[in-house]
Write a structure and sequence with these properties.
Layout: H1 20-30, H2 38-41, H3 45-65, H4 68-91, H5 97-111, H6 113-116, H7 124-141, H8 157-169, H9 178-198, H10 201-221, H11 226-250, H12 260-276
Helix pairs in contact: 1-4, 3-4, 8-10, 9-10, 11-12
Length: about 280
């Protein structure tokens, strides 16, 4: 059937119409088997998932850069991903968007008895204990037998490490002294040196992982976000590298033909300028 070009479309951007049900209606039209978008119709949970992850990262990036107009847009994109998955689920008679909202609402009420229950005599420590108990009950109800069972495999490795460490810490399997955490890092670095000297690739890979895990643990103990720490280092490296490029361009020198010694000198100049800024 040819789409009727004169068909009147609802004004989705009208302030009175800009509600969640308007977005749900829009998504349903995109997935309409007769008049919908071919690309949207071709998608399933697995094909949409990478876009969902990407949108979540773009939300985090907008927050990191303090771009709040952009954050508004990125939150909308992330919400659209939730609606997209919910529409696919509705079509397969698995669940609806309303079920998603109901599920998270019930979960938050259950995890915040100090807010929604009659007894408000909860302190911060009691609240944390209740939160963990509720989550533990939810895991058991889902058939999970291990404390680690519901930690997503698809999480970025650094985020997954933090989640694993936090989960283990809930039952006391954790370092109690910061010096022990730092000692573990030194131990893992020593083992990495030994592996490198032995030139066994599998062993080197294992020890790199162990060292990273130990460093992430230090960040957790200091209540720092290791993802953010690494992003800052990435940005710092890129900023200094661009300085090298700019200086060489100003001299009409080719980056690919510049010696390591000269690039290192410019790198140190960039560091010095950062200290003086």
């Amino acid at each position: 059937m040819k789409r009727n070009q004169e068909q009147k479309l609802p004004n989705y951007l009208n302030h009175d119409h800009a509600r969640i049900d308007a977005l749900l209606e829009l998504m349903a039209r995109l997935r309409n088997p007769v008049s919908g978008c071919p690309w949207d119709l071709d998608q399933d949970f697995k094909s949409v998932a990478p876009h969902t992850i990407e949108e979540a990262y773009e939300v985090a990036d907008a927050i990191e850069r303090g771009e709040y107009d952009e954050l508004k847009s990125e939150l909308g994109d992330l919400l659209f991903q939730v609606v997209f998955h919910s529409q696919i689920a509705t079509e397969q008679k698995l669940f609806s968007f309303g079920d998603v909202v109901r599920s998270v609402t019930e979960k938050m009420i259950d995890r915040h008895p100090h807010v929604f229950a009659d007894d408000n005599a909860f302190n911060k420590e009691t609240h944390h204990q209740i939160w963990e108990t509720r989550k533990s009950d939810e895991r058991k109800a889902s058939g999970h037998t291990s404390l680690m069972d519901d930690i997503p495999v698809a999480l970025p490795a650094v985020s997954r490490s933090v989640k694993i460490q936090k989960r283990a810490a809930t039952i006391g399997f954790d370092w109690t002294e910061l010096k022990d955490v730092c000692g573990k890092i030194s131990e893992e670095i020593d083992e990495l040196h030994t592996a490198v000297n032995g030139d066994q690739i599998d062993e080197i890979e294992d020890e790199i992982g162990d060292a990273l895990f130990a460093i992430i643990n230090l960040a957790r103990h200091k209540r720092l976000d290791p993802e953010r720490a690494l992003r800052r280092t990435n940005d710092k490296f890129m900023r200094r590298f661009r300085y090298i490029e700019q200086q060489l361009t100003a001299r009409n020198e080719d980056l690919s033909k510049t010696s390591l010694e000269e690039m290192e000198e410019l790198w140190q100049d960039a560091k010095q300028l950062e200290r003086e800024a």
